[in-house]
Input
Amino acid sequence: MTEGLALHWRLIPPRYNLIGNTCKNCGQRFFPPRNICPDCRRKSRLERFKYSGEGEVYTYSIVRVAPTGFEFQKPYVVAIVKLKEGPKCTAQIVDCDPEGVRIGDKVEVVFRKIMADDDSGIIKYGYKFKLKK
Amino acid sequence: MTKVAVIGIGITQFGEFWERSYRDLITEAGINAIQDAGIDGIEVGALYVGSMSPGLFIGQEHVASLVADNAGLTGIPATRVESACASGGMALREAYLSIKAGAADIVVAGGVEKMTDVSTEAATDALAGAADQEWEAFHGVTFPALYAMMARRHMKEFGTTEEQLAMVAVKNHHNGSLNPNAQYRKPITVDEVMKSAPVADPLKLFDCSPITDGAAVVILASEERAKKLCDKPVWIMASAQASDTLALHDRKSLCRTEAAVKASKIAYKAAGVLPKDVDFAEVHDCFTIAEIMAVESLGFCEVGRGGKFTEDGETSLKGRKPVNTSGGLKAKGHPVGATGIAQAVEAVMQLRGEAGKRQVHDATVGLTHNVGGSGASCVVHVFQKEVR
Output
């Protein structure tokens, strides 16, 4: 999927710096950030929250048939990472043997190129994770 | 409120048809359904059509009017319903609700997708639209990968094996071999599934449903009209729908499809039946793990036992709870918008006793379970045959 320039630009804080939010009313944390807390709704009091980037692999897969824009990366590991502060997010696990990732492995965030759009030429960056030594 | 019956069914062959268009497919299914209902067409009061992504597959939106126009039904209210892979089931539900509400007496519910006019890559990208584009697909996650991540958790938490996943595909290919409309009519073995190309570990090619062209249509009628027009009505005893978070990572458990649990609970209550009363079910096996999670979510077995339940043959044609007698999405094919309606067509065939070699003996109650995306939407219908 081709993303427009403005779409990617809007998402720079969470995608570059793992900035999500937290609800001051109930204490829940969100990543990616939400516009309202799904439990408190109108009573939500959302504040910006920066995640440490530490977490563990909750589940994973090795993508061998890649979507458009990711053909040259395959095979690559995608995972749902449970962040230390609570929420889970989807990202790639890099700098490792794809066969070597397991549920429960400790990971830390890295800043990487995600993909480049053919037609618009935008290079998109964002978070990936690597295994913690 | 009136009861609602299915009085006519129509379906096309499912497969890859370079010679046939979107409108060819839905028109054929529609004509078959109108003929089966024994009506003229003039009696139809409204039309709902499930179609997930015609804009990306054939560059066409505004398809409800296109379908009404091509079916010779111009003038009636025509509405497209979209809920990713559950679009068809949701169209059926909207049609059902419009009769319940008294807005019309006879309503057409159709589903159609023409997926092979674009490359496999483009079709895969279109399907990825059912995931969260900004927070899942952006990272290179494919649909097989989302289900693979559910499978990994299921294997970790409950000891489900890759062989048990393969057994779902083997069973559904066997059933598909008995369905003349199925895309794949060739039985396969566990060994063949295990040796098929890896797509997103632990899922392999034969764990995945195919890209398919096809359409299906059912004609619904109010109780009064059904009794006049039809000597073999199949009653829709319940229609229930639920939603869940769009992104898989926001779910509390990846081993339970919460929307399916909620929708089926509501449906069982409305129909006055229990999971044990269901004689057969058509469930959303877009991937083999999805069927294992479906039989658990629908209460056919305990959570975590879906793999063993399959391995023990309980879901086979001769088992206690035949699942996907049509071949399922896996072997019958998965033209996404058509799938929910095609499930209803199979349920009606079974309840009428018209399912040929795959007929479930003495089938009285059937259930269909249609899921959107990685589980963010689910619609469940319970069907019952006329008891005289």
Observations:
- Chain B has a mean pLDDT of 97.
- Chain B is about 40% helix and 20% strand.
